[in-house]
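User: What would this chain look like folded?
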Amino acid sequence: MQTKDFFQKLRRFDAYPKTLDDFRIKTFGGATVTIISGIIMVVLFISELNYYLTTEVHADLFVDTSRGQKLRINMDINFPRVSCAFLSIDAMDVTGESQIDVEHNIYKERLDLEGSPLEVPEKEDIGDKSLQIVESLKLSLNESRCESCYGAESPALKCCNTCDNVREAYRKKGWAFTSPGEIEQCAREGFTEKLEQQQNEGCHLYGNLEVNKVAGNFHIAPGRSFQQHHVHVHDMQAFGNTKFNMTHSIKHFSFGHDYPGIVNPLDHIHVLANREQMMFQYFVKIVPTTYVKLNSSVLSTNQFSVTTNTKAVTSSFGEQGLPGFFMMYEFSPMMVKYTEEKRSFFHFLTGVCAIIGGVFTVAGLVDSFIFHSAKIIQKKIELGKAS
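Assistant: Here's the prediction, encoded as structure tokens.
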């Protein structure tokens, strides 16, 4: 008896009292509201489930204390109006000195004026090329030979066995290198023919290089570069009065490896040079970034912002500047850390309950409004007929 009284009292707490089936009325409007509310609940549930299955990324900002790291520069750039034979790539630090121990995988690909490749890409050399000697000539000519420098001999360079040696000797003397066709070494290597052959071509540069993690710049410009009295110089004498159209398209440009959600502001842009001899300067602020994935693996990379400046240079060298593509970069003292985390299951469960309860409640209100409105309208119609 006590048990029966207990359950009888417990029924008072029932927040969902039931009605007898005989007193329930099923309507067409109620069925329509039920179907629509069911579809809405399913759609919202799928949306909530997709949100739960994605990772949540938290961002933290703190001072960058890392040291001794390398900076990876990735590029994919087209120069449709400048031949690969004219362009050189150089990386320099903030002091103006050329970067040493630069590891790179940058390739040059010759293009025709329509942008189609002409030959297999060649790996490009970076920095001062003045000490290079053509390997093929070493195999075919006597290595102990000592060819003339055409009056430009010096104690440091008494023999000029290649066209590059002659050009370097002329530079050290401050002489203009204006007649490569009359130099036996250049004629043997086909220096003039190579320039003439590639006169109406474009160039595709792509790959990556790693430099020291200090402020600096790297640039792509006509002329072979070298250091003279701690000054970075580009030899433009062999090109005579050639004017360069530095129009370029940047397919991809970034610092470090990509991570989910990264935005590289220089990707997929086309820059048109409205006149010849244009210098394009990109001033970049690099923000060191660490991305921690769900499996605890850490990716050290960078994101950046950029501002640009363009100007026309009246000469190929001097205070007016050099036509080309110049990227000046410096580092922010702050570092951003992104951490992936799983979303809370209880948050997902709360969202699902809110969806079901909310839609059910609103659907009940709508159904009640439709039902009572229909009854009132029907009663007025019946009264009208009776009168």
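The chain has seven helices and 15 strands. If you want, I can go into more detail on any region.
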